[in-house]
Amino acid sequence: MVETIEMSVTSVVEQLDDRFEVVVIDDGSTDGSVEILERLEAEYDRLRVCYDADNDNLAEARNHSFEEARGNYVLASLDTDDQYTQCIREFVDLYHQFEVGFDGDFFLLGVGLYIAPRNLLLDVPYRSLGYGEDRDFFRRLIANGSLLSLEHRNVEYSLGYDRSLRERFEVGFETMAVQFQSGLHFWPYVRWACEEIREEGGQELEWYRGLAHLVLAPFAYLRSLRGPHYEAPPEFTDIGRYKEAVRRTHMTAEEMADYLGVELDWEAVGPRGRAIFDVDEAGIIID
């Protein structure tokens, strides 16, 4: 983290104007990151760091950032081993164009970034879970009709940290356990994994990944019994039904504009924004 945090933070703060602030939540780093953040905070008026926040997990840190935010809207969130291309102001402009056609507050999900009214994020916060907390978060937003997902070209780039095979396995296993902790039912999960294995049935995963889900699901379910449990929206205790709902929310910018009954002003978004966010086809989304 200490090797990448300056590049990560400056990739955001240097593309913003005075309408924005950047809030960094530090949960007690001891690797030298704090000294870098203190220097950057002195250099950039738009940067504000909350030190020694003492959150237990990423979900709590995200909620903390929502509470600390001073604006009416919140954009999130960047890992400290990634950096953004120039895209944030264009994404915000596109959101406000979509907002005209949406009845109420809504959450616009991109790949690596999202935006929503702060009040919505305070009303539907993350729940204190481990890896995969965002899946539970998205389920509850979709259930109350508040989430749309936007297809676009890549806007974030890794600064070099790659998880080992063991780390990827551990994260994947914990993510699966968190799915059960957040209210998914076991047998529909098994059925979904079997459908992904079938030659013509899988829509999201390669067959071997479906097999991994099938084999690991019983162990992940048992692991989930040791942690806190929450209720999922009744319609989404079946992961297959949730995956179908996710696909229905996922659109290109033009498809979303048609869905909301608005006409996009690409000139306002600018040529760089259009190059990123105006794509021809929505791909398969794996939440």
From TrEMBL:
**A Pfam family matched in the record:** Glycos_transf_2
What sequence ranges are listed for the domain Glycosyltransferase 2-like? 3-97
Give start-end ranges for the coiled-coil region(s). Answer: none
Its signal peptide is: none
Gene3D superfamilies recorded: Spore Coat Polysaccharide Biosynthesis Protein SpsA, Chain A
Superkingdom of this protein's organism? Archaea
This chain belongs to the protein called: Glycosyltransferase 2-like domain-containing protein
Q: Which organism is it from?
A: Halarchaeum grantii
